[in-house]
Design goal:
The complex is a heterodimer.
Chain A lengths: L2 H10 L3 H12 L3 H10 L7 E6 L6 H14 L4 E7 L8 E3 L14 E7 L11 H10 L4 E5 L16 E6 L6 H5 L3 H4 L2 E4 L7 H14 L10 E3 L8 H18 L3 H29 L2 H10 L5 H13 L3
Parallel strand pairs in A: 1-5, 1-6, 2-4, 2-5, 6-7, 7-8
Chain B lengths: L7 E5 L8 H12 L3 E4 L6 H11 L3 E6 L4 H14 L6 E6 L6 H6 L4 E3 L5 H10 L6
Parallel strand pairs in B: 1-2, 1-3, 3-4, 4-5
Helix pairs in contact in B: 1-5, 2-3
Classes of the chains: A alpha/beta, B alpha/beta.
């Protein structure tokens, strides 16, 4: 049996070592990882994928620990991918999300993986969506993706998750912050955490007033829930709403979201592969280096250079 | 897409003491050396540490201990690593560990023991030079 075949069998039987190895292959973008993804793809599509996003300090890790416990009580198998930022200067990362999830480590039906962004923009890592597939194929019923502490534009999570939970906490920002585009638009469920603090109701009202300005008539109205992650207050209600949203997605049969996800993945794969193929071809023809030098000398600019290169090299094709 | 292999390190604190300044200093230094460092917080059981190492697929584990329980906790950790087939992970330790205990710990498979005041550069160099070859 080849190494890939062995890892695949391991994943399908829920073997944690195989899952861990597979995610490493994917993170390191080895040639093997592509073959592996192709092989696991037919076994995916069963899990409910939940994205949890929101600003730093809103309580994402702490809430996730409670969400996992609640799902475990309902007999669900759970996977978690917790993303933290990579330093743009050193390439290193400090991954500390497990601190809040210590006791879940030894649960046989829970798999947690910390992941560094490796400078991928948008709040998740390049490897996140494929790591989700590994967990999906391994038989997890629910997969939770925790984004990096997100501000306004870290919205890549919609390409990965079925249900997106956007967290807020009182005292982190005012109504003007909430009116900005981005995070506010991607939420399927809003959570105001630290609801035992004063001003929690004010945060709820802020979000409500923004949603009222929204004149799109969507079939799903994002509920606004209050939680206290430290005690677990409000978590059962959150699970209930997540289940409702899952049913909604299945019942609607519109599968707009799955279509959107599939489209985004296809477009990205095409972009990546064509860009790589084109650059390699240009390098082979020796044009690349020549133009690079011209850009450095300010004789041309990168956009014109790219246009010229593509025109000269591919017009005949 | 280029293939990039990153060194992944687990910094863990087994046992009951609650002083993690040293662990955090080492974690920070390894991060700044370009590694991905997973830190799990205080009061970890050997089972939790080994499970975390397995799920995170780390190359290296650094154990920090100041309570004096290293002679009980370290053998258990090394035993569990063996049980789970994780013998290709390199383990080093640091904290308050008497000189005379070091040979015994090394016999267990712990590659090196660093005392208080060790310059972080020395630890980084050690990790890079003793990185296990893992498949």
């Amino acid at each position: 049996m080849t190494k890939i075949e062995e890892i695949l069998q391991g994943i399908l039987t829920g073997n944690k070592r195989s899952i861990a190895k597979a995610i490493t292959l994917i993170e390191n973008a080895t040639a093997e990882s592509k073959k592996l993804i192709a092989k696991i793809y037919p076994h995916t599509g069963k899990a409910h994928i939940i994205g949890i996003t929101g600003p730093s300090g809103s309580g994402k890790s702490t809430l996730i620990e409670k969400i996992v416990r609640e799902y475990r009580q309902n007999g669900k198998k759970v996977g978690v991918i917790a993303v933290d930022p990579t330093s743009p200067f050193t390439g290193g990362a400090f991954l500390g999300d497990r601190i809040r999830m210590q006791e879940l480590s030894t649960d046989a039906e829970v798999f947690i993986r910390s992941m560094a962004t490796r400078n991928y923009p948008g709040g998740i890592a390049r490897a996140t969506k494929d790591a989700v597939k590994v967990l999906d194929a391994s038989g997890k019923d629910v997969i939770i993706v925790e984004t990096v502490g997100a501000g306004q534009s870290e919205v890549e999570i919609i390409k990965v998750a079925d249900s997106v939970v956007v967290m807020h906490a009182p005292g982190l920002g005012d109504e003007i912050q909430a009116i900005k585009a981005g995070l506010m638009e991607i939420a399927d469920i809003f959570v105001v955490n630290k609801a035992d603090r004063e001003n929690a109701d004010k945060a709820v009202i802020d979000i409500q007033s923004i949603l009222q300005l929204n004149n799109k008539k969507n079939a799903w109205k994002p509920p606004i829930l209050k939680t206290v992650a430290l005690t677990g207050e409000g978590v059962p209600k959150l699970i209930e709403k997540l289940e409702e949203h899952k049913q909604f997605l299945r019942k609607e049969k519109e599968h707009k979201k799955s279509l959107l996800k599939a489209e985004a993945e296809l477009v990205e794969a095409i972009k990546e592969q064509t860009a790589r193929a084109v650059i390699e071809e240009l390098k082979r023809r020796g044009k690349f280096e020549e133009l690079l030098q011209k850009i450095l000398k300010r004789e041309t600019d990168p956009v014109s250079a790219a246009e010229k290169l593509l025109e000269e090299s591919f017009r005949k094709v | 897409m280029q293939s990039i292999r990153k060194i992944r390190v687990l910094i863990a604190k087994p046992g009951l003491d609650s002083h993690d300044r040293g662990a955090k200093v080492v974690a920070r230094a390894l991060r700044d050396a370009g590694m991905e460092v997973i830190y799990t917080g205080l009061r970890q059981t050997p089972e939790q540490i080994v499970e975390t190492a397995l799920q995170e697929d780390v190359d290296v584990i650094g154990l920090s201990i100041l309570s004096g329980a290293h002679k009980t906790l370290f053998p258990r950790i090394m035993e569990l690593l063996k049980e789970k087939g994780l013998t290709d992970i390199m383990v080093f330790a640091g904290g308050i560990i008497p000189e005379e205990d070091v040979p015994e710990l090394k016999k267990l498979g712990i590659k090196e023991v660093f005392g208080p005041g060790t310059p972080t550069d020395k630890i980084i160099k050690f990790v890079l030079e003793n990185l296990p070859h893992r498949t």
